[in-house]
Amino acid sequence: MLGIGVIPSVMLGISVLAMPESPRWLVMQDRLGVAKKVLDRTSDTLEESKTISADIKEAAGIPQDFQDYIVSITQESSDGSGVWRDLFIHPTPTVLHILTAGIGIHFFQQASGIDVVVLYSTRIYEKAGIYSFILITLKV
C-alpha cells in the first residue's frame, strides 16, 4: 500500500518524456525547422501555428520571410542574468502579478496549517467521532 503513491509519479515521468520541446526554446537554440514542426503538431489550426511562429520570429529578431531550417541568433546574454533582473528588480506588471500570486499561495498554504490537517486527519476524525473516514486515510 505504501508504494501505490509511486504510480502517478511514474506515469507523469513517462509522459514527460513524450512531450515536445518548447518552440520558443527551439528557436533560441537555432532550430527553426524543428520549432515549426512542433508548432504544426501542437496547434489547433495551421493559421494559429503561423501566427505563433510569426510572434516567435518577431521576438527573436528573425525576418518573417526567413524559412531556413537552421538559423543563427545573436543572443545578448546566455547566462540567464537578465531573467533574474527582470523577475526581481524590474518586473513587468504581469510578472509582478504572477510573482505575487505564487508567493501568496505558498505563504497562505503554510500559514493556514493545511499540512497539519492532512497529516493528522485520522486523529481529527477520531476526535470528531467520525470513524468511516479512518479506513480511507493513513493512520499517523
UniProtKB/TrEMBL annotation:
Pfam families: Sugar_tr (PF00083). Its main location: membrane. Keywords: Membrane, Transmembrane, Transmembrane helix, Transport. InterPro entries: MFS_sugar_transport-like (IPR005828), MFS_trans_sf (IPR036259), Myo-inositol_Transporter (IPR050814). The keyword Nucleotide-binding does not apply. GO terms for molecular function: transmembrane transporter activity. One of its GO terms (cellular component) is membrane. It is found in: Membrane. Belongs to the major facilitator superfamily. Phosphate:H(+) symporter (TC 2.A.1.9) family. This is Sugar transporter. It comes from Solanum bulbocastanum.
